[in-house]
């Protein structure tokens, strides 16, 4: 009986120890190192956080507990664990409500928006990020704003609001500069620069994309998962531009510490590497990667990427001379893709496979098979273009609907304000007219003998209208337009206008957006002239002892409006003030 009682007590103690936090042994550990690792995409910190929960959570102060929930939510969203994200958001917000904390719920909402973005719920994510930013502006928390602007830039660029994404990233950099201490969550400068590069790539500004991503690589700790992530995605960007050798160079420099983004990520990584090796004419190396990717996708029933992996394996076999086996794989994959794409409507990869087949048959001299493959390619590609156009139309309709809603809101607000203004005007208009006549009579009587007629002063020029006009002329006439921004934060820029206007052509302009800023608009300036003018102005400022004047240059693109152009120039200025992490051993 005693033995049975002891056994029961032992089992009960074992159960309690596995379900309840134990008393902490020693002081409560800081979460700063965990936070830094998570900002570098280290999902293994989930195990560290779970260990802290069992040992320290119950005895920790509320701020430590709230930060624990926030960091655990970050790990969950990177691992695509929606249930865990919701649990941490719910428990963290409840704890924050009891503690009277209004900042942590915004961080948790931001975490939830990232998960929604990862599930392609872009409208939901964007609405949540808008709400966080609107509330965060009153919280005086630059780290929160930097994170929120960066997240919204990612969502906006994927929602075709690319110019607005550049604006958000410029704001994110400004806020990141203000961060002295981040008590809740760290801000990653390398990640902001990587998102800049990603956004410039969407704008087809490949030179700026390269510049921004290389800046991210220089700033990031080279042994972290974030460094792996940036290099891998840079390889993807290079591959899409047919810069295959450069892409392979980035893959060769990947560290051995990749991030773990759930059960599908490894398959996509191996699929991309297999496709790149095939493009580099290395089919023997591509086959095992394609097979592993196919096995990963088959286990989770992802038909479309599974079929793509089969196509790469089949194409590799065909190139190695195993034609029967290779074409069997390709035909199997094309059948699967046709079925799944019929429902989903994305015909791009299927068209690509038929084009490859047509090119291969033509190279082998099989013109009949090449013609049949091209016929299939034409049919599938027509469907692909049809889907692309319908997607663009849907996006335009959505944007138009949002603009209409915003216009209605502005109209309602302006109508109310106009009504109140008219009521106020009616109350004092009569008395003002009488008083004005009296004052005018006294003024004329007193000053008439000594006054002289003066020419009416011309109103100051509207620099924004001039900028819009010049940008529109540049687009209409297809004439390149370049801009140099000069800023003197300590003195009025008007003192330097004469120096800035030196050697300008008649068609060039100098505008002053504010007291400390000037814009030099250079009509038809080539890249070489733009670089020369920036260098000569830099020398001129240095020789004049005005080393505090900051300069930035940009080319005007067809997608630009004044806000996006100024945002890119601001980005240039901010980038100059952030030092790069030197890497003396080798280049990027």
From TrEMBL:
<feature type="signal peptide">
    <location>
        <begin position="1"/>
        <end position="24"/>
    </location>
</feature>
<feature type="transmembrane region" description="Helical">
    <location>
        <begin position="426"/>
        <end position="448"/>
    </location>
</feature>
<dbReference type="InterPro" id="IPR011990">
    <property type="entry name" value="TPR-like_helical_dom_sf"/>
</dbReference>
<keyword id="KW-0732">Signal</keyword>
<keyword id="KW-0812">Transmembrane</keyword>
<keyword id="KW-0472">Membrane</keyword>
<protein>
    <recommendedName>
        <fullName>TPR repeat-containing protein</fullName>
    </recommendedName>
</protein>
<keyword id="KW-1133">Transmembrane helix</keyword>
